Amino acid sequence: MRRGDALRFWGVLGLLVVLQFSVRSRFGNERVAPDFLLLALLIYTIRARPGASAAVGFIVGLMGDALTPASFGAGALAHAIVGYVSSWAKVLFFAENLLVNGGLFFAGTWLRNLILAVASGKLAGPQLGWELLVWSPLEGLTTAAAGVLVLMVFRQWLAIRLEES
Amino acid sequence: MALGADRYATRGDTLVFLSSLALSLVAMSLPPAIRDPIASGLRRSVLWPFLQLQAQSEELRTSRARFVQVTAERDSAALAAAFLGELRAENARLRELLGLRARLGTRFVPAEVLHQATPTDPLTVVISAGKRQGVRQLAPVVAPEGLLGIVSVTEGSTSLVATWAHPEFRASGMASDGSVFGILSPHGAAGPGGWLLELDGVPYRQRVPFGTVILTSGLGGVLPRGIPVGTVIGVAGENEWERTYLVRPAVPPGAVTHVMVLVEPDAGDLRSVFLPDSGSPRP
């Protein structure tokens, strides 16, 4: 990756991190607002190798765990798995397609919430059901929509070229 | 063209992935005595600028909302000035809106709730007030509707609050008339929008009518007496000597945005603050 491309790529990821902590709460219901931090991770996995994606996922998850210590470690586990699987999925499903990317963003969000909810052991029974069948799909949809929008707006900056990874 | 899946991941990738999993499992198994300082250290270092950004953003949003509200109230007042009766009603409504702050005699610190995007967010939340603002550990955190939780960790300018939805939350509760006492603990989901509490240990011969407001009893010395926790909506179970009642919480932890931390250890009886009809004169 050329230096200019890399700077723009990291700039978009940085923008998503800032959005997470600045405007996310303005999307109304926090439980269905797009998760920009997870989105940044998933976009990062477009270009990164599975190992690096897992490591970055672990770090992102650990940061989230520090803010919600009720599930400490579960977020790191969930993000590491999602990062690794997403990086693989990009190879298998040809990530140049916008809809495929949207599907991966949706699936990544839902899978993250599934692993986090189960691994934390704090949600069970109807709580887990509502989380996985109602809130997580809604959050996945908004995250996917935001992700597709980001890819469309920053298409040139986020050109998906796995062969250059 | 994408790389072939068979040669995309190396042993190094697999090793890093497995290491991440192993570290995650270690983190999950850490006891609170080790886990909490690590989490606190991350919040005070790497995450500090982001928490400040989130707090500033919430404050800005609140300021804008307040400005809009004040503008709307000014317009309303101007309109109502033409009609004395309407003006009185408007005044009563505004007093009601501002009532909690005016009536709350005990010292408190206002704070914004900094929500995170995880399913376990309602269990513990970060608020934008800490030691510098006078917040202490185990301080009650309330919203205008009632109890949100208890401060579990305090830091410089932020604090961690364990809400009533946390599996380890327990509080002594009582009916609003003081006739029935029990132990409050989280129960589970009531639907997509809400979790429930349960009031346990109520003697079988003491019935609690549905709709009864449950308050903190003040027993135990952590929570002051008289903070609304929720409303009885049903019976969760019973045996030969006691009943367990379902309680719909007064404050949904996933939706609350602004709270107050009561910073006086002995706040007394707060029933008159939250329940206007409880007998105490209002200002």
List the helices and strands and how they pair.
The complex is a heterodimer of chains A (165) and B (283).
Chain A: H1 3-22, H2 36-47, H3 50-67, H4 74-93, H5 98-120, H6 126-153
Chain B: H1 11-28, H2 32-44, H3 48-80, H4 84-103, E1 108-114, E2 124-127, E3 140-143, E4 146-154, E5 159-163, E6 171-175, E7 181-191, E8 194-203, E9 213-216, E10 228-238, E11 242-249, E12 258-262, H5 271-274
Antiparallel strand pairs in B: 1-2, 1-12, 2-5, 3-4, 3-12, 4-5, 6-7, 6-9, 7-8, 8-11, 9-10, 10-11
Helix pairs in contact in B: 3-4
Provide a compact summary of the structure:
The complex is a heterodimer of chains A (165) and B (283). Helices cover 73% and strands 0% of the residues of chain A.
Walk me through the structure.
The complex is a heterodimer of chains A (165) and B (283). With 165 residues, chain A is mainly alpha-helical. Chain A has a single domain (3-164), classed as Arp2/3 complex 21 kDa subunit ARPC3. Chain A is 73% helix and 0% strand. Chain A has six helices and no strands. In chain A, helix 2 (36-47) packs antiparallel against helix 3 (50-67) and helix 2 (36-47) crosses helix 6. The radius of gyration of chain A is 15 Å and the shape is globular. The model of chain A has no long low-confidence stretch (mean pLDDT 86). Chain B is an alpha+beta fold. Chain B has three domains: 12-44, no CATH class; 48-163, Rod shape-determining protein MreC, domain 1 (Thrombin, subunit H); 171-250, Rod shape-determining protein MreC, domain 2 (Thrombin, subunit H, Beta Barrel), CATH 2.40.10.350. In chain B, the strands form two sheets. Chain B has a six-stranded antiparallel β-barrel with strand order 1-2-5-4-3-12. A six-stranded antiparallel β-barrel of chain B has the order 6-7-8-11-10-9. The radius of gyration of chain B is 23 Å and the shape is globular. The relative contact order of chain B is 0.13. The chains are: A mainly alpha (165), B alpha+beta (283). Chains A and B meet through helix 1, helix 3, helix 4, helix 5 and helix 6 of A and helix 1, helix 2, helix 3, strand 2 and strand 7 of B.
